[in-house]
Amino acid sequence: MPVLRTLLLLAPLGVGASCAAGSQPGSAPSDPNLLTRSEIVTANAHNALDVVRRLRPAWLHTRTSPRFLGAQEPTPPVVYVDNVRYGSVQSLAGLSVEVLGEMRYLDAPEATQRFGTGHTGGAILVTTGL
Q1: Is the separation of the CB atoms in 62 and 76 below 8 Å?
Q2: What pLDDT, in 10s, does the model give residues 25-58?
Q3: DSSP one-letter code for 67
Q4: Long-range pairs for 85-88: beta carbons < 8 A, 24 or more residues apart
Q5: Strand partners, 105
Q6: Which of the four pLDDT bands, split at 50, 70 and 90, describes residue 70?
Q7: 124, 104 in Cβ contact below 8 A?
Q8: Is 87 helix (H, G, I), strand (E, B) or coil?
Q9: Other CB atoms closer than 10 Å to residue 36's CB: what's the count?
């Protein structure tokens, strides 16, 4: 019985150690909805569209949200730069990697809550490093 109790007490420590073993020291797990400056630099791309294509291609998929009854056909995400509506996904091609601070994807409900209607495809938020 004391051995079983000891094993049960030590089991959570083993699980935590095994989970941490796969990550590098000092590195945080990658967020699928966020691209940090350090990730952007490693993409070896010329513009924001190339960065997204290489690192988060799922952001570019057009989608229809079942929560929005007015959406009749799939729509792409809307791009915002420094919280100002910038354009379509293709407008990312005009943003040089040098000006990018971070990029974040918002799904349709989040984008609608933040910016209002017309975001059934979500939104890509670009924060410049300027």
Answers
A1: yes
A2: 445 557 999 999 999 999 999 999 999 999 999 9
A3: T
A4: 85/115, 86/126
A5: 124
A6: low
A7: yes
A8: strand
A9: 16
- Average pLDDT over every residue of 95-105: 97
Its pTM stands at 0.72
Helix (H) or strand (E) segment spanning residue 6: helix 2-21
Determine the length of the chain.
130
Q: Which two tokens stand for residue 4?
A: 């079983």
d(CA 98, CA 46): 9
Amino acid type, 53: R
Give the DSSP per-residue string, 7-57.
HHHHHHHHHHHHHHHTSPTT-PPPPTTEE-HHHHHHT--SBHHHHHHHH-G
| Paired tokens of 13 | 């420590």
Task: Give the full edge-to-edge strand order of the sheet including 100-106.
Answer: 34-35, 100-106, 123-128, 78-81, 84-87
